[in-house]
Amino acid sequence: MKIWLTVVMIYLLSACQSTTQIPSDELLSAVGTISISAQRGKTLAERQSRAVRASKLEAYKELSEQVYGIRISGLTQIDDQSLDADQTHGAVNGIIRAAEVVSSYSVGDSYVTEMQLSLSKMKKMIEYSESHHVPSNNTIIF
After folding, report:
1. For residues 80 and 89, what is the distance between their CA atoms, to the nearest angstrom?
2. Distance of CA 114 to the CA centre of its chain
3. How many other C-beta atoms are found inside a 10 Å radius of the C-beta of residue 82?
4. 93 vs 50: CA distance, rounded Å
């Protein structure tokens, strides 16, 4: 009887165990969408090429916001007890490594790039290589 009771208890306890596996890599995903017709270029091919590159950068920016956060600053000016100007600025700064393009395609007048980032791969890459300061837009590199 004790053996039968022990077997039943083990069975019941194993039934309470979760069968869902937690992924070993924490994946972040991002989508960059850019209008093709809004790009500069004489031909459609030039505008499409620029949209491809811009959508990829937009996806990188979204990944960077997820990893490092976004800095928000705002300014509100009131003149004569009425709203004169209201400005909000957002900025993100970071280095993304090991991101992968999952898919890249056009939809109507837009170009879409889908990316994903494994946080564990990014951490490993940071351990193996040195990070360099990313210069601001007004810094002369050459």
Report:
1. 24
2. 9
3. 6
4. 22
What is the rounded distance in angstroms from the CA atom of residue 107 to the CA atom of residue 110? 5
3-state helix, strand, coil in the chain (%, to 5): 35, 30, 35
Q: DSSP letter string over 41-85?
A: -SSHHHHHHHHHHHHHHHHHHHHHHHHH--EEEEEEEEETTEEEE
Distance (Å) of CA 85 to CA 81, 107, 139: 12, 36, 30
Which one, of 66, 65, 69, 64, lies nearest residue 97 by Cα?
64
In this prediction, residues 64-73 reach a mean pLDDT of: 91
pLDDT, tens only, 11-54: 555 554 444 444 545 899 999 999 999 999 999 999 999 999 99
Q: Which two tokens stand for residue 100?
A: 């992968």
Confidence of residue 7 (pLDDT cuts 50, 70, 90): low
Pairing relation of β-strands 110-118 and 99-107?
antiparallel
CA-atom Rg of the chain in angstroms: 25
